[in-house]
Amino acid sequence: MKLILSSLFLVLSAANALILDNPPAAGWASGETVTEHWQTRPADPAHFTLTLESYASRGNHALIAIVETAPGSVTFTVPDVSAGDYVLNAVNMTDDNDIYAQTAPFAISQ
Ligand SMILES: *[C@@H]1O[C@H](CO)[C@@H](O)[C@H](O)[C@H]1NC(C)=O
Predict the structure, then answer these.
(1) What domains appear along the chain, each with residue ranges and CATH number?
(2) Distance from the CA of 54 to the center of ligand 1, in angstroms?
(3) Which residues does the UniProt record annotate as the domain Yeast cell wall synthesis Kre9/Knh1-like N-terminal (predicted)?
(4) What was the pLDDT predicted at 12?
(5) Cβ of 69 below 6 Å from ligand 1
(6) Is 107 within 8 Å of 67 (Cβ atoms)?
(7) d(CA 5, CA 1)
(8) Quick check: pTM over 0.70?
(9) What are the pLDDT tens digits along the chain (110 aa)?
(10) Where do the DSSP E strands lie in the chain?
(11) What are the φ/ψ torsions at residue 87 (nearest 5 degrees)?
(12) Within 13 Å of residue 74, how many CA atoms lie on the same side as its CB?
């Protein structure tokens, strides 16, 4: 019975989490102006920090923006980073390790 309850809880929490849309399959280019969208759920925090993290060297990330959750999108300039694979993270504003959502890996070209 315990097992059934905890799997149900997992399903419910997944349905209540912020979802970051994946960047286009073609990826982005450094310096390009892009818009990232996300889908919100009622229990989401009012703000979060959007970071860009290198997929090859995890933990190496750049701040993109501190955003309000409600509008569902933010437009920004892709930072000048080395070409490679990256993910976007939506993280707690006061704790980078508290990740709310993450995109699939995507390429950034120069
Ligand atoms: C963000 O992290 C802080 C510090 O760990 C915590 O107190 C707070 O509840 C977190 N906020 C959310 C919305 O999870």
Answers:
(1) 18-109 (2.60.40.2840)
(2) 24
(3) 28-108
(4) 45
(5) no
(6) no
(7) 6
(8) yes
(9) 455 554 444 444 455 589 999 999 999 999 999 999 999 988 899 999 999 999 988 777 788 999 999 999 999 999 999 999 999 999 999 988 889 999 999 999 99
(10) 19-20, 28-29, 33-39, 47-54, 61-68, 73-77, 84-92, 95-102, 106-109
(11) -130, 155
(12) 18
Backbone dihedral angles phi then psi of residue 2, each to the nearest 5 degrees: -55, -45
Measured from the CB, is residue 85 less than 6 Å from ligand 1? Answer: no
Atom number of ligand 1 nearest to Cα 45? 13
Substitution candidate for ligand 1 out of 94, 96, 100 with most atoms within 8 A of CB: 94
Length of the chain equals: 110
